[in-house]
Amino acid sequence: MKKDIHPEYNAVTINCVCGATYETRSTAALNKIDICGACHPFYTGKQKVMDTEGRIEKFRKKFGSRYAQAASKK
What we know:
alpha+beta; 3-stranded mixed sheet; 3 strands; elongated
């Protein structure tokens, strides 16, 4: 391997805006992040689930029989 071409790989402390702190190693000088696993809505269970059923019903009302006929011809 060539000498002096690789970036330094240092220990870094990363702080989230929610207050969580993580110790890791990185070539970048990171120190603050906006969202982490402790405060992300997907991991905390606070994520809003989209109501896809309402969208499907709206589509069927709008295009109804025309869409069913076109799909059956294929």
